[in-house]
Amino acid sequence: MHRYRSHTCGALRESNIGETIRLSGWVHRVRDHGGVLFIDLRDHYGLTQCVVDPDSPAFSLAEKLRSEFVVKMDGKVRRRPEGTDNDDLPTGKVEVYVSEIEVLGPAGDLPLPVFGDQEYPEDIRLKYRFLDLRREKLHQNIMTRVEIIKSMRRRMEGQGFFEFNTPILTASSPEGARDFLVPSRIHPGKFYALPQAPQQYKQLLMMSGFDRYFQIAPCFRDEDPRADRLPGEFYQLDVEMSFVTQEDVFAAMEPVITGVFEEFAKGKPVSKNWRRIPFAEALRKYGSDKPDLRNPIEMQDVSEHFRGSGFKVFARMLEDPKNQVWAIPAPGGGSRAFCDRMNSWAQGEGQPGLGYIMWREGGEGAGPLANNIGPERTAAIRAQIGTKEGDAAFFVAGDPDKFWKFSGLARNKVGEELNLTDKERFELAWIVDFPMYEYNEDDKKVDFSHNPFSMPQGGLEALKGQDPLTIKAFQYDITCNGYEIASGGIRNHVPEAMVKAFEIAGYGEQEVVDRFGGMYRAFQYGAPPHGGMAAGVDRIVMLLCGTTNLREISLFPMNQQAMDLLMGAPSEATTKQLRELHVRVNLPQK
Question: CA-CA distances (angstroms) from residue 327 to 175, 290, 385?
């Protein structure tokens, strides 16, 4: 018999009854039933109930076992007594009568429990992550992640893609976030950067004639902590294709992403016919460029009904042609209590309030706004937005460029509070026609709004003759249930157009050559039209595991202060290390 095990803790079945076997694993818990000890033994594969009674030679040692001891047990498989089967376990019809126990690794007092999934302080969980990962739900999440990545690889290969690995030490690049810099020992005063994404390398692969690339790529960004991104590093399904239009990318990737969701959705419906929503429409209807389409509410511009009305606050705002009034329908929300609650919520979000109209029996509008604008205008609003008796609508007014995010939050809040958002499905969509540029208020200049390497719609002619802030790009996102899970674009592969695009954003030609020399040179020697995307592995796994915390699907994450409490990173470098790197530390004054 093998030194440690003849079977795993998830392997035994009724067909093994009568066999003498050996198991090794962790003591999950010990139960004393009238002097008979029941020990649940756990390993990566499952859990087996082991029984030790006072007649067993192993009994005296079994009495000393505690949770998380690693032990080896020899014994005989037998049928569980009638009425004691556990249908939740694959091994639930059998148990092992133990004759011998060997302690392979004793365990001290645990800083956090492994049995059960109760909440525990995050700093303790991350410091003792090796214990945290033994917990059933988290352990299963990690294995689901493994299977999802395997599914992605299989599906990408099935679509004719090839997996290539791109460098980790590279040059700094303006991808929209800060780089992690790595000082060079053999080139004093110079630095490598960890890649924010393999963007330039995957485009260079297309220049090299490889046609269809993918990679499960690690990406590194020195960003402030965000709720929807792990600090420091994350993984993406990175994709690039040659000789393609935007439609070709959509046709290749929709089946991959849909297939992954269907495989791991645990029976929840997954949208098959993805909607395509222009960026401007997404902001206007949903107040978000990553709308949760499980929520049926669509906002509408109802400015005309308030223009010149008795509600002077809105009427005066609308004298400025850039201002608008948007309505957020609230089906079933036509109670004073709910409307007042939404108004209080808006004030908690830093807003002066949230105007509303309720529709009573007979279709009559009620509330301060209805009283001010009169029954005709109230009826016209109702006819436009399709509200019924017992419904309400909330109103946001001002410059849409400044209020669209709040209106989106209000839409989400109404959907949640009125149980309109269907939590039991996955709704995938493409967001398309992103603006190429945006105005940077801080720097008072035109800047790239999304990806600097994208092809503008209209090409070089648009760059030369169009107001930059009106140029749309061949850029697109995939959204799911209120999260952006992928982003991509058709690339700007024309050297003159690339220089012009960067020139509009304030980069001179020499700076483009200096910063993107490899790609710029490659474009001079036969560049194929190409495009691709990158899907966030972590967010996809998070959605499919049914959690809203990325730490629940990652092996060894940092905390929200970007610190690795398990390994003690970041840590100070020694004087010798700094000297070898020709680096001095200039700490901020306290």
Answer: 36, 19, 8
Task: Name residues whose C-beta falls within 8 Å of residue 262's C-beta, 6 or more positions apart in sequence.
Answer: 270
pLDDT digits (tens, 9 = 90+) for 422-464: 999 999 999 999 999 998 888 888 999 888 889 999 999 999 9
Q: How far, rounded to the nearest angstrom, does the alpha carbon of residue 235 sit from its chain's CA centroid?
A: 10
Q: In what order do the strands lie in the sheet with 300-301?
A: 300-301, 324-330, 392-398, 355-359, 365-366
DSSP annotation of 523 reads H
- 95 is known to lie in a ligand binding site: no
| 382 assigned binding-site residue | no
User: Binding residue per annotation — 29?
Assistant: no
Say whether 221 counts as a known binding-site residue.
yes
Annotated binding residue at 484? yes
450 known member of a binding site = yes
> Phi and psi at residue 199, in whole multiples of 5°?
-55, -55
**Annotated binding residue 13:** no
Residue 389 marked ligand-binding: no
For the chain, what's the residue count? 590
CA 46/CA 44 separation, integer angstroms = 6
Which H or E run contains 32? Answer: strand 20-33
Main-chain phi, psi angles of 301, to 5 degrees? -80, 115
- The tokens describing 100, both together, are 């011998």
Nearest to 488 by CA among 213, 281, 182, 222: 213
**pTM of structure:** 0.92
Strand partners, 489: 475, 532
Residue 377, annotated as binding a ligand? no
Confirm whether residue 536 is marked as ligand binding: yes
Q: Order the strands of the 232-242 sheet from edge to edge.
A: 162-163, 212-221, 232-242, 530-536, 483-490, 475-480, 428-432, 275-278
Residue ranges of alpha helices (H) inside 386-490 are 400-417, 459-465
Distance CA 507, CA 136 (A): 52
d(CA 139, CA 555): 9
Q: Among all chains, which residue has been given the structure tokens 């070709």?
A: 248
222 annotated ligand-binding residue: yes
List the one residue out of 199, 202, 203, 192 whose CA is nearest residue 176: 199
Which domains occur in the chain, in start order? 14-105 (2.40.50.140), 295-418 (3.30.1360.30)
Residue 175 dihedral angles phi and psi, to the nearest 5°? -90, 0
Q: With a cut of 70, which residues of the chain have pLDDT below it? A: 174-176, 225-228
| pLDDT for 228 | 67
**123, containing H or E segment:** helix 122-127
Q: Which H or E run contains 237?
A: strand 232-242
Q: Which amino acid is at 95?
A: E
